[in-house]
Amino acid sequence: KDVSNILNLSSKRNAELNVGRFLRIILGIVGGGIGASPDVVIVAMVEGV
After folding, report:
1. DSSP states of 1-49
2. DSSP tag of 1
3. Cα–Cα distance measured from residue 2 to residue 26, given in angstroms and rounded to the nearest whole number
4. Least buried of 13, 33, 38, 40, by fewest C-beta within 10 Å?
């Protein structure tokens, strides 16, 4: 039971990392015109969740 919970957490974390990487690429492209740092935006989004 504990092992499955750990696996679920790790897979969820990996999914979040993939989404973050995707967002970073998108924001890197779009953020250049906005002038906001993609990392700051991502941190704000992650902390918000």
Report:
1. -HHHHHHHHHHHHHHHHHHHHHHHHHHHHHHHHHT--HHHHHHHHHHH-
2. -
3. 36
4. 33
Q: Which residue type sits at 2?
A: D
Q: What is the pTM of this model?
A: 0.38
Query: How high does pLDDT run on average in the chain?
Result: 73
What are the sequence ranges of the domains in the chain? 2-48
Distance CA 18, CA 36 (A): 21
Three-class secondary structure of residue 36 per DSSP: coil
3-class secondary structure, 14: helix
| Tokens matching residue 42 | 């991502």
